[in-house]
Structures are given as C-alpha cells and as structure tokens.
Amino acid sequence: MTALADLPADVDLLVIGGGTAGLVAAKTAAGFGATALLVEAHRMGGDCLWTGCVPSKSLIAAAEAAHSAVDPRALGVATGAVDVDFAAVLAHVHGAIHEIEPVDSVEATEAAGALVVMGRARFTGPRAAEIDGRAIAFRQAVIATGSSPDVPDLPGIEGVEVLTSDSVWELTSRPERLVVLGGGAIGCELGQAFARLGAQVTLVQRNARLLPKEDPDASAIVAEALVADGVDVRVATTVERVEGADDRLSGILHLSTGDRVPFDRLLVALGRRPRTAGLGLDAAGVRTDERGHVTVDESLRTSNRRILAAGDVSGLPQFTHTAGVNGSIAATNAILGLRRRIDRDAVPRVTFTHPEVGAVGLLPSEAEENGCTVSEVRHRHTDRAIADGRTSGFTRLVIDGRGRVLGATIVGPRAGESLGEASLAVRQGLRTSDIASTTHAYPTYSDALWNAAVADVRGRLRSGALARAIAVLARITAWRMR
Ligand SMILES: Cc1cc2nc3c(=O)[nH]c(=O)nc-3n(C[C@H](O)[C@H](O)[C@H](O)COP(=O)(O)OP(=O)(O)OC[C@H]3O[C@@H](n4cnc5c(N)ncnc54)[C@H](O)[C@@H]3O)c2cc1C
Ligand SMILES: NC(=O)c1ccc[n+]([C@@H]2O[C@H](COP(=O)([O-])OP(=O)(O)OC[C@H]3O[C@@H](n4cnc5c(N)ncnc54)[C@H](O)[C@@H]3O)[C@@H](O)[C@H]2O)c1
C-alpha cells in the first residue's frame, strides 16, 4: 500500500472508491501503462464483497439447505427436525467473504500495476483533489463511490435502530419476528432467506406487486414462493408509523391497512442513494441529477470532461456486473481517449429468490408496443423441471419480426445460469433459428429456452413465403421419390 507521504504529485487517473467499479477501472488503466491511483476510504472490495452479493448469496445458500431439508416436496426423502444454527450460518457468510477478499485486496490491485492508498478523497478543483488533507493533481479521474441504503424519514423511524443491508450481517442471533420494508431485490431475497432459516417474516411492499420492475407473472410466482415459505406478504401497503420499544430494536409497525405488526427487528430495503456527500463535486464542476446520481453521458464522462463515473453512483443499473463493465469502459475511454459507449440494451439481472428471476433486454410486457412477439415455455412442460419437482417457472423470449431475440425472462431454479445464453443472444442480435439449430443438453433448464426458440422457428416455417417454399420442396421431393 502506498503511504500518503509517498504519493506522486500528480497521476494519470485518480480512481475514487475501491468497490467493483473502482477496482476494475484502476486495474484497466494500469494495464494500459498509466499511473492509476485508487483511493479507498473503508474496505477494498466495496459493497458486493462485504454487504451485498457475497453475504446475501451465502445466506441464501444456507436458507436453501434448510429449506431442502424440510421441503414437503422432498421427492420421497423424509428428514428429521431441522436445526438452524444461526451463528454457524453467519460463520459461513463471513467465511465466503474472507475467501473472496484476496481477489479485491490492496496486494492484488498493486500486483495489477495500480497504486493504492487508504483514505477519503474529495475534489478541490477541476483537476485537483485531496486525500485526507494531502493534495494531489490528476489528468483524469473516475468517481466510483457507490451507493448506501436509503432509510426514508418514515414517522417514528428515528425511535428504532433499523437494520439495513449494511448492518444485517452483524446480527449475532436470528430475529424471531422480522419485518422487511420493501419488496424489491433486497427485500425479496433476504425476506425469503430469513423465513427459510426459521424467522417469522412480514414483508411490506408499497407497490401492488413484488419485484415491480419484472414481468408481472414472475412477481406472482415469487410472491407465491415467499408465502409458501411462510412470509406474510403485504403488497399495496405503506407504513403509517413506526412505534419503537424501549430497547430501540423492537416495536410495532402501523400499516396503512390499519394492521399492526409487532417486530423484534426491522429491516429497511427501500432502495439506495448515491455516495456523493463531501466529495467536492461542485468544486470539480461535476453535476448530479435530481436523485443525486452523478450525471454521465453514453461514454461515462461527467459535466467535467476530465472526470468520469461508473458503478452505483452513476445512476445506471445497480449491479456488480454493470459496475465492473462500466469501470472498464470508463478507464479505457479515459486512458486511450476513446468514446466506447455503455450497453443499455443487454444488461442482465437476476433476483436470487427461489425460484430465481432472470431477465435481459425487453420485458415480455413490452413486446407488443415494440412490434415483437413472445414465445413461452412453461416449466411444467420442461422435463428437467418435472424431474426436480420445480415446475412453477417459465421461459419467455421476446422476438422481433426478423426472429431476433430482443429480451428474455426466465423464472426457475438457477435461472441466472440459463440467462447467460439469452444475454449473448440479445447482445449479439442472434435469431431464434441460431438457438434452435444449436444442440442443447438434455435434460436441462436451458432446454426450455431452446424449446421457446424452436416454437418460434416452427411458427415462422408454417407461415408466409417460407411455408409455401417448404410445401413446394416437399411436393418436388415426393414426386422424385415416387
Ligand atoms: C444486499 C445486496 C445484494 C446485492 N446483490 C447483488 C447481486 O447478487 N448481483 C449484483 O450484480 N449486484 C448485487 N448488488 C448490487 C452491488 O452490490 C452493487 O451494484 C455494487 O457493489 C456497486 O459497486 P460500486 O463499485 O459502484 O460501489 P461500491 O461497491 O459501493 O464501492 C464504492 C467504494 O467507494 C468507497 N468510497 C466512497 N466514498 C469515498 C471517498 N470519498 N473516498 C474514497 N473511497 C470512497 C466506499 O468505501 C466503497 O468501498 C447487491 C447489493 C446489495 C446491497
Ligand atoms: N440480485 C441482485 O442483483 C441484487 C440484489 C439486491 C440488490 N440489488 C441492487 O440493489 C438495489 C436496491 O435494492 P432494494 O431492494 O433496496 O431497492 P428496490 O428499489 O429494488 O426496491 C425497493 C422497493 O421498496 C418499495 N418501497 C418504497 N418505499 C416504500 C415504503 N415506504 N414502504 C414499503 N415499500 C416501499 C418500492 O415499491 C420498491 O419495490 C436494486 O435496485 C438492485 O440494483 C441487486
């Protein structure tokens, strides 16, 4: 690690933030031979490693193990009483973090050629910053400071020490009665996981459905799954007031429906706000939008052309893969002077509930307005899903008039894995005939994607000029073989 006193007076690229976006940006710039300095105020690796993807997916894995042991559809295998050792579950969560941590470490970043300093950076001018009071000049900079959980000012909420996705990993025991506010990705993933680990969970969602950015049928399947896991799902419901108890941890939630829900802990998952406080954006001439995100153009440059932004702070989709890809694009554009553009059309996303919801490109509900059709295979017709006893999902492809795949939504076990193929198809403009003519291993869930493509190709072969050509060819062949 570079000591503050040893910093060079100026650098080619100053990267603020050592989460996914900043790590990739710094390593990419160093790979081009530039002097890249990464500044991290807290922990290398950022939210994904410490409080986001890694702990949440590790908790979900433990929850899945608990669920499989008690699943009534356990396929003829009876198990005894399930004992969830919450401390051991959290040990697994922290173990996963520590196993992955070296990849994002100071050492790994320096080995890739970047300089790393631990400290808090802020801009002091359009080409100048300071790190814990030490001045540094930069030719260009990347803002990659991420986002934090948003805890809105709900009446009475100040009387309770709420949990957020930052603090939930510090629990030492499982809350018996957990209320989760928010039915987006975090609320659904963690709400289901805690329920499967034995907590009594109530999930309160303001919107009329869970995961409102996804296909409505996906929302319905996830809601059914949560209810089956014992979650008390309250949609189209808001919080009137939070009544805190003396311990400041527990209390009673007063809902818009008139119901009162007592809780031992309250987990707030109501979206995130960009981390820009104290960053000196005004001094740098960097503008933000109405939600406080750093405004970027299609090549990730801000209103100060020497400063770019990537990751959650930029207001683009808040995913680790987006942060990484855009961190790379920002550094490439900065150091090589290019205008590589971000991809807005083929950004995959997966909500890791059981079943998972994976989506890329156009939603099925957007098909008609875009002149597209939807080809669907329900997983009750997919042999692998039948064999697994997990038939509630579906695979839907959104297809344009020329047979190109413009979107996909997949609901099912490990939907995120099948989504890779759909993402490739959307990104590369592949047609359903490309997928249909590729042999898919049987029996897999990607068989559903293949069958959705085959169904579309069959439909095309049965209509229009192609159908007439096929009929003529068949008649000629029959005549030759007579
Ligand atoms: C519970 C949860 C689960 C998630 N699950 C997934 C998932 O399964 N898949 C997925 O793709 N995404 C997931 N996400 C989203 C993902 O974690 C974020 O999109 C991603 O971490 C954003 O990366 P980033 O680099 O933009 O920001 P961050 O990871 O937040 O990194 C920003 C870094 O900047 C540092 N910093 C801030 N200000 C300064 C400053 N002034 N000076 C120096 N350093 C500073 C911070 O300390 C931090 O380390 C999840 C998020 C949460 C909360
Ligand atoms: N699997 C993943 O990739 C993954 C997992 C977790 C988080 N994330 C990222 O983190 C971001 C933040 O997640 P999140 O779940 O906190 O936010 P979110 O914006 O996805 O969902 C918040 C939900 O809270 C609801 N809401 C808002 N105010 C409310 C209120 N007062 N009472 C009840 N409900 C209210 C909204 O209707 C919304 O559906 C996500 O958008 C995603 O980009 C990704």
From TrEMBL:
Binds 1 FAD per subunit. NAD(+) binds at G182, G183, G184, A185, I186, G187, C188, E189, G271. Residues 347-452 form the Pyridine nucleotide-disulphide oxidoreductase dimerisation domain. The keyword Oxidoreductase applies. It comes from the Bacteria. InterPro entries: FAD/NAD-bd_sf, FAD/NAD-binding_dom, FAD/NAD-linked_Rdtase_dimer_sf, Pyr_nuc-diS_OxRdtase, Pyr_nucl-diS_OxRdtase_dimer, Pyr_OxRdtase_I_AS. SUPFAM superfamilies: FAD/NAD(P)-binding domain (SSF51905), FAD/NAD-linked reductases, dimerisation (C-terminal) domain (SSF55424). Its cofactor is FAD. FAD binds at K57, T145, G146, S147, D312. Keywords: Disulfide bond, FAD, Flavoprotein, NAD, NADP, Nucleotide-binding, Oxidoreductase, Pyruvate, Redox-active center. Disulfide bonds join C48-C53. Residues 12-324 form the FAD/NAD(P)-binding domain. GO terms for molecular function: flavin adenine dinucleotide binding; NAD(P)H dehydrogenase (quinone) activity; oxidoreductase activity, acting on a sulfur group of donors, NAD(P) as acceptor. The keyword Repeat does not apply. Belongs to the class-I pyridine nucleotide-disulfide oxidoreductase family. PANTHER family: MERCURIC REDUCTASE. This is Pyruvate/2-oxoglutarate dehydrogenase complex dihydrolipoamide dehydrogenase (E3) component.
